[in-house]
Every structure is written in structure tokens, then in C-alpha cells.
Amino acid sequence: MKLFLGNIALQLVLYVLFVFLFFFTPEANASRIKEIANYEGIRGNHLIGYGLVVGLEGQGDKSGTGFTTQSLANMLNRFGVRIDANSISVKNVASVVVTADLSPLAKPGSSLDVTVSSIGDAKSLQGGTLLFTPLSGADGEVYAVAQGPVSIGGFLGGGDESKVQKNFLTVGRVPAGALVERDIPLSVGNDIAILLKNPDFTTSSRIAGVINTNFGPGSAHSVDATKVWVRIPDGYRTNQVDFLSMVETLDIPVDTISKVVVNERTGTIVIGQNVKLSTVAVSHGNLTVEIQTSYQVSQPSPFSRGGTTAVVPETSINVEEEDARLIQLDEGTNLGDLVGALNALGVTPRDLIAILQAIRSAGALQAELELI
Fold it and tell me: What is the pLDDT of residues 291-302, one digit of tens each?
């Protein structure tokens, strides 16, 4: 009797678990708002600066690189070393452009990763150290300063005759190499706009609908395919961070355009989930022509009185043609059916590109075909 009751209890638990997963599991193609959109005005900003990398063991800019020697002379002059730029001849210094992205939420004292790129004729930045470099925004104001050892994630070995190289040696990074000196002014009013990264009318409308469902009618409305206006409720006017945090974690069923992306150079094909076909028949077969030429040498017999050596070519031609395979794809065929059918034909990526273009020309491909 106890065993019977235990089985009933187990079945009841499994049933409740099934109902919970069926009704409360988010849709497979749902994404949080923070993954598909940004708040207007709350975005990263590019920073750029010009600096010097030193300690390059003879791999730096040559003496003919005028801006490097002039920059080095200017730096030494600030340290009280008076020197003429024309008299400098060093190979351990390289001029670089330093770039970074400043988060809109970064505060003074925060650290940033920076990228260092050579702009002279330096052979390598390996082992170098970036000197104090101010980083400015588009408004010309300095928001961060960078300094530290450069990591290129590669190496260069060998001599003049043979070399071994990994990665680009003239571009490196300084992890956490910049310190934020000034933050970006950020203010949020009673209204804020959500901007979709990939504009879509359906997704924009769904975002407004989900926000209205969670925070009440009139909390949001879709302006166009890119923008959704959101009004901060009265109860969150003094605590806007909590409201924005709740909004950006809402799950939205993302709708995308049906698209097939083809890269003919590499043979890469990416097929979207919603790609469908109209009724179409596809025939595929390969024709292989192989031509081989061998050379036979004919020469006189030993101790013969005359004759010359002759080279006689012998050519053989072999033609193999596979049987054409015909397969029919009915209307409404989805991604799985399409991939399965084309795999059944044994097509290569190159053949698949030609087949997709032919299906598109026949008007049976219900998707956008993009060649990159």
C-alpha cells in the first residue's frame, strides 16, 4: 500500500513539474531587452590618444620617422632634458595610437582595456611599455589616461632566412591599462527611449506590449521599428535604477527577417530559422572529366647505326558523370526539411550556394538571399 501511494505521489510531482515547465518556460527564441536594445543616451564612447611605446629592443621606428623622434624630444624636454630632435637616433621607441571604449557607467578610478597600434615602421611592439597617454573623447576632453606593458599575444622568432610569426606584432593590448579620470554626465528624466539594435516593427511592438503588461497600460508605446518610448511610473521616479533594471530583464519574443547569408569566398552558408520554400524540385549531379597524359620514350636499340630518341605522348580521357538526383520540396518546407533534403543530395557548400541561387531565381525561396 505504501509503495502504491508512493507511485501516485511521484506521478503527481512529475505532472506538476510538466505543467510548470509547459506554461512557465520562456519561449526558445525569447531574449532579454538588454540583449536586443539599448537605452537612448546610455551608450559607450570611443576614446583615442597618441603615445610612445619604449623598450622594443631594436624593433621600434627607424630614425627617419620624424614624428617619433620629435615626440621623444618633446617628452625629454618636459623632464628637463634639452635635446634636438634631429640628433636623436634610437630604435627602441615606437609611435602608437591608443584606443579604448568608455562605458557610460564608468566612474573615476575605474580601469579600461586599451588597444595599442603602431603608426610608424616599427617591426614589433613585443616587450614594450606604453608611456603615460591621455585619452580624449570626441569633444576633446580627456576622460582617461593609459600606461603599462603591452601584450601582443604572439611572437616573432628566427633570423633573416627563416622566421616564425604568430599574430600581428604591431598591435597589442594593455589589459586594465587606462584609469578613468572623468565620467560621462548621465541624467534620466521621466521618459526614456529604448533603441533596438536590429530595427524590426514586430519586435518593437512586442517590447511595448510586454512593458505595458508588467507596469500598466500607457507605460510604453512603439514609435517606429527602432524606438520605444517608456514613461517611468510615479512610484519609481526617485529610484529609476530599479525600474530600468526590471525593464531590461523582461523577456521578448524576437522576430527576425528570413534571410540566407552566403559567403562565396569561404563557402560559408548561414540559414535563418524562418526560411521556407515554395514547391520546387531540385536536381543535382556532378560531371567529372579527368585527363591524364603520360610520356613514352622511344630510343634506338644498342649498337644500332642510326636513329634518334623520340618522346611519344599518350593521352587518356576518363569521363564520369554521377546520376542526377531529383528531390521535390513541398510548399512550406522549413529549415530542417531544407537542410535534410540538401544533405540527402550530398551537396558541398559550393554546390549549395548554386542551388540556393537557382531556387531564388525560380521564385521559390521565401527569404532574402544576401551575398557577402
Answer: 455 656 666 666
